[in-house]
Write a structure and sequence with these properties.
Layout (H helix, E strand, L loop, with lengths): L1 H6 L14 H8 L4 H7 L3 E13 L15 E11 L2 E11 L18 H5 L6 E2 L3 E5 L4 H11 L11 E10 L2 E9 L14 E2 L1
Parallel strand pairs: 1-8
Antiparallel strand pairs: 1-2, 2-3, 3-7, 4-6, 5-6, 6-7
Bound molecules: the ligand C=C(O[C@@H]1C=C(C(=O)O)C=C[C@H]1O)C(=O)O.
The ligand C=C(O[C@@H]1C=C(C(=O)O)C=C[C@H]1O)C(=O)O binds next to helix 3, strand 2, strand 3, helix 4 and strand 7.
């Protein structure tokens, strides 16, 4: 039982329950597109795709996407970069039961932000945000650390990471976006200049 809990997070509906640092709170709770907000806090914004492939969803996300147990999904993982600094590790899953008409743009996204396809589509409905504090042993914490280590970034050591997730629906499809906020996000400050996507 303990082993299982180390790999799963306790997702809750109120941000105060995860006791996140104050400077992180507006990132966790912000409405609208995270991409748009990050662009407003940087001169250059980029989506670095780590992979997009078929995978088995995580144990603590199966039920959220309507699966009784972890099953096959389309999985996309990216680093969102502001002025080349990685500030968010994002993990998106779409059940294999979805067909191409549910998420027509998902498979060919490349380095375009998923957010631009979700927030611009009147057929997409957004669920409520859930929050979690990720232990170092959570799969998404491990993957975020591995992504940073791959580029020689200072290890995140054992510090807690804070995440949010949101379920999107379109036609018969569901899509779950989980965003793990990396420590450098708290160094961002709003810019007045327009940003350009590199
Ligand atoms: C959902 C959004 O899309 C962002 C972009 C993602 C991607 O390109 O894979 C994943 C998660 C988000 O942070 C958003 O901008 O709010």
């Amino acid at each position: 039982m303990r082993e299982r809990s180390l790999r799963q997070a306790n997702w809750v509906g109120h941000v105060l329950a995860v006791n996140a640092p104050h400077e992180l709170r507006h990132w966790l709770t912000g409405g609208g597109s995270l991409t748009a907000k990050l662009k407003h806090h940087s001169e250059t914004f980029r989506v670095q795709v780590l992979h997009q492939h078929v995978a088995t969803c995580l144990a603590d996300e199966a039920r959220a996407i309507g699966l009784h147990r972890p099953g096959r999904v389309w999985e996309r993982e990216v680093l969102l970069r502001c002025d080349n600094a990685p500030v968010v590790f994002a993990h998106t899953v779409v059940p294999m039961s979805a067909d191409a008409t549910d998420w027509p743009l998902f498979s060919a996204l490349g380095e375009r932000s998923l957010g631009t396809t979700l927030f611009g589509d009147p057929r997409v409905t957004r669920g409520t945000l859930e929050y979690a504090r990720l232990r170092a042993s959570h799969p998404l914490a491990l993957r975020a650390r591995a992504a940073l280590a791959a580029e020689g970034q200072a290890a995140l050591d054992e510090q807690l990471l804070y995440a949010r997730r949101c379920l999107y629906r379109r036609r018969q499809g569901t899509l779950l976006v989980t965003e793990v906020f990396l420590p450098r996000v708290t160094r961002l400050v709003p810019r007045t200049s327009n940003t350009r996507e590199t």
